[in-house]
Amino acid sequence: MVPVFSHLAWFDIADPESQELDQLARRFKLHELQIEDCRHRPQRPKTEEHDHYIFTVLKHIHDRDELEFDDIDLFLGRDFLISVRCADAAVIETVRARAGQEKVDRLDRLFYMIVDEIVDGYQPVLDKIADDISEIEDVVLDKPDPPTLARIFSLRRKLIDFRRVAGGMREVVDSLIRRENGLVGDDLDPYFRDIYDHIIRTVDLIETYRDLLSGALDIYLSAVANRTNEVMKVLTIWGTVTLPLVIITGFFGMNLHLPWTDSPYGIDYAVALMAISTIAVLVYFKMRRWF
Fold first, then answer.
1. pLDDT-derived band of residue 194, with 50, 70 and 90 as boundaries?
2. Which residues make up the CATH 1.20.58.340 domain(s) of the chain?
3. Distance from the CA of 211 to the CA of which of 42, 87, 127, 264 falls in 20 to 30 A?
4. Nearest-angstrom CA–CA distance, 172 and 57
5. Cα separation of 260 and 273, whole Å?
């Protein structure tokens, strides 16, 4: 197994099922349960301390559009760093380029850079979610249709998943700050505190966006209810307006001797009576300000 850099023992495993991971596990005496965690994904974000290394499970955003997360597992010892991931190499490649530019010569700093890159990847997703919520708020009143409702529920579900991941990552970074075995240099504490601040901000923004979506859902339900009320109002008005017409036509439809039966103007009288009744109902509604 060839390390990423010739001067640092950083080993990057792109396939958790590969035999290279087993070889490194035997070489550096990694616990078998943690190797199992690397191969049975997904795992919750966590960090575990051992006598000679730290095992950490991190969550990076694999698909920003669908907000899908993938695991990056890190084993940090005094003389080795092992990263275990799937085929997605964007984070690792970014860290590799950054470490080359800064001429990093410490494994704990590489460890920090991977954590920092993963957490920094959350911000563009939050910005996109904010834009999506703004767009939903713009259309929810004018167009409260089922696709808009489906979009609200989809985004809420993504935020719930994001909140769970961000909360776990917050605990991981907090544990790294409070570590006691000295595998990470004390001079990196300010940098990890900066990551922790970013995580706290991420969690706060997620909570804010969830509240905004809840508000958008309430607006949607209110708009649908108002639209239903308007429809029922129109139907009720027309039903009430036509009620006198139904009564009059039913009255003159009876098989009895009625007024105007023999008059040549009987139809005109009946039509005039229906028109007067309709106008009277409309005037009454207008006086009561029902429309």
1. very high
2. 226-287
3. 42
4. 8
5. 12
Segment (H or E) for 13: strand 10-13
Quick check: helix, strand or coil at residue 290?
A: coil
Taking the C-alpha atoms of residue 201 and residue 194, their distance in angstroms, rounded to an integer, is 11
In this structure, how many other beta carbons lie within 10 angstroms of the beta carbon of residue 66? 9
User: pLDDT tens for residues 261-289?
Assistant: 777 777 787 888 888 888 888 888 778 77
The CATH 3.30.460.20 portion of the chain extends over: 1-115
Domain 1-115 in CATH 3.30.360.10? The answer is no
φ, ψ of residue 176 in degrees (nearest 5): -65, -35
**pTM surpassing 0.70?**
yes
**CATH architecture assignment, domain 226-287:** Up-down Bundle (1.20)
Angle, CA of 127, 133 and 139, to the nearest 5°: 140
Query: What is the distance between the alpha carbons of residues 234 and 272, in angstroms, rounded to a whole number?
Result: 24
Q: What is the pLDDT of residue 8?
A: 81
Q: How many CB atoms lie within 10 A of CB 153?
A: 11
CA pair distance 260, 255, nearest whole angstrom? 14
pLDDT(4) > 70? no
Write the single-letter amino acid at 279.
Answer: I
* Residue 144 half-sphere exposure toward CB, CA atoms < 13 A: 14
Please state, as a whole number, how many other Cβ atoms lie within 10 Å of the Cβ of residue 17: 10
Q: Cα(195)–Cα(185) distance, rounded to whole angstroms?
A: 16
How many whole angstroms separate alpha carbon 193 and alpha carbon 203? 15
Mean pLDDT of 20-31: 91
